Amino acid sequence: MFELEKIVRPNIQSLKAYSSARDEFKGEAEVYLDANENPFGTLNRYPDPQQKSIKEKLSEIKEINTNQIFVGNGSDEVIDLAFRIFCEPGKDKALTFSPTYGMYDVSAGINDVELIKQPLLADFQINLNQLQPYLEMDEVKLIFICSPNNPTGNIINKEDIEYILENFKGVVIIDEAYIDFSTKESLVAEIKNYPNLIVSQTFSKAWGLAGARVGIAYASSKIIDLYSKVKAPYNVSSLNQNAVLVSLNNQTKFEIEKNIILIEREKVITQLSQLPMVKTIYPTEANFVLVEVEKVNELYKDLVKKKIITRNRNSVINNCLRITIGSPEENQKLINALQEL
Ligand SMILES: *Cc1c(COP(=O)(O)O)cnc(C)c1O
C-alpha cells in the first residue's frame, strides 16, 4: 500500500511554501506596486509563478486537471525535486536500470542519495526477479524508469511498469522525454490509477525547445502540491513560458517536424544497415538510434574529424554509438561520411 505521507521527507511535509504577491492576489489589476519591479520595459515584470496559461493548454491537450501538472526548468528540475522531496540525504536510496539517462546519477549524487543501478536484460527490459527485494526495502524511495530509454531507444514493457507501481511502496518516475516519437501510448492517463506515479515529459525533444528549458511532471494533485512547494518561486522565465505557449498553439508545426524526423529515422536505419562497419541496429522508439559498430572509438574520432559529432556510448554498451536523427541534410552528411570511411 502506497502512503504518500510515509514517503515524503518530514521537513518537506511541514514546509510552508514561499508566497509571492502574485500568489496571494488573483485576477487582473490596473496598478501593480507589490513586487518592487521597475515600471518600465517589457521584461520588467516577474513571470507567472504558477505557469497558468501553459497548464491550461496542457490540460486541454492531455485531458488532465491543471492541478495534476507541474512545469519545471527542464526535466532536470523534475528529477532534482523528486530527490529533494522524497529522499533524506545520506540515508535514503533511489533505483534505476542501466544503461540509462545519466542525470539520475548526477542528481542523486548532488542530493547525497545512493542510486542503485540494476542492469537491464539483454533485450533492455527490466529483470523483475532481480528487482523484487528492492521493492520491499524501506530506504528505497524512488525508482526511475526511462521509457523510451536513453540510450537504448526501446519502450519498457507496460506490464512490468504496472507490476512495479503495484508492488513498490515508494514513488515511480517514468521519464517519457521521447514518448512523442513512439508508437506506444504515454502512461499519463495512468496517474488517476496510481497515486505513486509521476510521468515526466519535456519540451526539449519533439517540441524543439531544448533552449527554453521547460519540462513537465504529471502526477496526483498531492504530489504536484509538493513539487510546487519546493520549486523556486519563479522557476520558468516569461520568455520560456511564452516560447512554450507559441509552440502549444501551433501543433501543426510539431506534427510536421515529428513526422519528418520519423521518416528520416527509417531512412537512416536503412542506409546504416547497408554499411559494412555496422553490426547491429537496435530497434528504436525515439529520435535516435543505437548502433553497434566495429572499432567504435576510432569511428567516433573519424567522424569528429569530418566535423560530425555523435555520442560514443562505448563506456556503457560495448562498441555502441548513439546517433541522433537530424535534418535530411545532416543525415545525408553522416551517411556520406560513413560511406567514405
Ligand atoms: C533529453 C532528455 C531529457 C530532457 O531533459 P530536459 O532537462 O527537459 O532538457 C529528459 N530525460 C531524458 C531521458 C532525456 O534523454
Automatic annotation (TrEMBL):
Annotated GO biological process: L-histidine biosynthetic process
GO molecular function, a single term: pyridoxal phosphate binding
Check the record and name the PROSITE patterns matching this protein: AA_TRANSFER_CLASS_2
Q: Does the keyword Transferase apply?
A: yes
Q: Which UniProt keywords apply?
A: Amino-acid biosynthesis, Aminotransferase, Histidine biosynthesis, Pyridoxal phosphate, Transferase
Give all N6-(pyridoxal phosphate)lysine modified positions.
Answer: K205
Q: Which domain of life is it from?
A: Bacteria
Pathway of this protein? Amino-acid biosynthesis; L-histidine biosynthesis; L-histidine from 5-phospho-alpha-D-ribose 1-diphosphate: step 7/9; Lipid metabolism
Question: What's its EC?
Answer: 2.6.1.9
At the top of the EC hierarchy, this enzyme's class is: transferase
Tell me which cofactor or cofactors this protein depends on. Answer: pyridoxal 5'-phosphate
One short Pfam family name for this protein? Aminotran_1_2
Reaction equation(s) it catalyzes: L-histidinol phosphate + 2-oxoglutarate = 3-(imidazol-4-yl)-2-oxopropyl phosphate + L-glutamate
- Name all Aminotransferase class I/classII large domain ranges: 37-338
Assembly and partners?
Homodimer.
Similarity annotation:
Belongs to the class-II pyridoxal-phosphate-dependent aminotransferase family. Histidinol-phosphate aminotransferase subfamily.
Protein name as annotated = Histidinol-phosphate aminotransferase
